């Protein structure tokens, strides 16, 4: 018996699909009532890194918000977060300051922070899994 292969249900925020196509990945994939969001970075409109760290983090969260919105979600629907940091000890306070303006009150989503040595010119990246309201 051959099992049918399911198609990926890709989600893209308005105005950014060309950058995702250039790098050959989807902003997010909807699977059942879950949304798996690719890592979002603090890029300028042309895709280049925002040089100032706090602004880069804020842009990454804004990019994430746009992907969530394109799928009918908000930060309240996020259940799991993974962040990547090029210098976690030096960046932690800044990331938490920006995070606190976006994530909201407890209960908080799961969160895993990972120190890395390379993020393609960026210093921060965030990816999430969210539950899609209404299960679709």
Automatic annotation (TrEMBL):
Give the record's GO CC terms: cytosol
Any single GO molecular-function term of the entry would be: deaminase activity
The UniProt entry, under Pfam families, shows:
Ribonuc_L-PSP
PANTHER family recorded: 2-IMINOBUTANOATE/2-IMINOPROPANOATE DEAMINASE RIDA (PTHR11803), RUTC FAMILY PROTEIN YJGH (PTHR11803:SF44)
Name of the protein this chain belongs to: Endoribonuclease L-PSP
Query: From which lineage does this chain's organism come?
Result: Bacteria, Pseudomonadati, Pseudomonadota, Alphaproteobacteria, Hyphomicrobiales
